[in-house]
Amino acid sequence: MDIIHIKRLEIFANHGVIPEENTLGQKFIISADLYKDLSVAGKTDDVSETVHYGKAAFLIKQISEKSVFKLIEKLAEEIADSLLKNFPIEKVKVTIEKPWAPVRLPLETVAVEIEREWHTAYLSIGSNMGDKEKYLNNAVNKLKETEGIKVTAVSTFIETEPWGNVEQDNFLNGCLEIKTLLSPEELLKRINIIENEEGRVRTIHWGPRTLDIDILLYDDIRMYSEKLKIPHPELSNRMFVLEPLCEIAPYVIHPVLQKSVLRLKEKLAEKEAQK
Q1: Pick from 68, 98, 116: which residue ends a domain?
Q2: % of the chain residues with pLDDT over 90
Q3: Which residues span the domain enclosing 125?
Q4: Which residues contact 72 (CB under 8 A, 6 or more apart)?
Q5: Same domain, 165 and 261
Q6: Cα(81)–Cα(56) distance, rounded to whole angstroms?
Q7: pTM surpassing 0.85?
Q8: Which CA distances in Å does 163 have to 6, 25, 266?
Q9: What is the DSSP letter of 124?
Q10: Do residues 84 and 162 share a domain?
Q11: Looking at 98, 132, 142, 265, which residue is catalytic?
């Protein structure tokens, strides 16, 4: 990606652990690198295809002056989060220098540098109780309303037979593409809250449910913890997931199997045809 640099913006603010820092204030020097594809702006000369760096600089100043934080780490996080949410950028790097840090040593400055970005995740959603379509639509809308999540694609909802050995009604299934600032763990927590709000009860493994949301992929990470496994371990074995996922992301590569979603779907169809 291309980068717009905001370099060494000087701001007087009141951040620090020592009380005098909060009352007297001091100088901070803030830089931000805004990552965005600028090729369209370069070819068309259209200002709407770039980032208004003046407004971005003013936002940095506003955030720095309106609050008081003990840590410049917290200030950097607030700036990065606001820039990502308010401007059409994919990634940001924020550097905060504190040249007047009360260290009593001959140093030029202390600084914190962080990088934050929008992540791409794919979710499956399913329901086989009550008004199934309503539950799925509720899930989509609640994800859209979640701070730090943008729903960028929704598949067609398809009816499928239940998975497992429990007798139950057919499912309505679909997949979503989202952009998110949440970590995988934060995303899982939000998903569980939405499921609970829609009446999800976890009593029977693979049993009937009002709403089921699974994280299928999150960028290209591989994560295996007790609570969360990414990519989803059963992704390549479930046609009811691969079919709607293929509709919105056919060429996304499975980071472990190193095959596209389309190829995984084709392989599973070949396997099922041989049964």
Answers
A1: 116
A2: 87
A3: 119-273
A4: 15, 28, 96, 98, 112
A5: yes
A6: 12
A7: yes
A8: 52, 61, 19
A9: E
A10: no
A11: 98
Contact 126, 226 (CB under 8 A): no
Same domain, 6 and 20: yes
> Residue 93 is part of a domain; what is its CATH number?
3.30.1130.10
How does pLDDT run across 79-131, given as a tens digit for each residue? Answer: 999 999 999 999 999 999 999 999 989 999 999 999 999 999 999 999 988 89
Name 163's Cβ contacts closer than 8 Å, sequence gap at least 6: 171, 206, 238, 240
User: Which residues sit opposite 153 in a β-bridge?
Assistant: 177
pLDDT tens, position by position, 167-202: 668 889 999 999 999 999 999 999 999 999 988 665
What Rg do the C-alpha atoms of the chain give, in angstroms? 23
Count structural domains, the chain: 2
Q: CA nearest 121: which of 150, 141, 146? A: 150
Phi then psi for residue 143, to 5 deg, are -65, -40
Establish whether 98 is a catalytic residue. Answer: yes
Distance, CA of 270 to CA of 83 (rounded, Å): 47
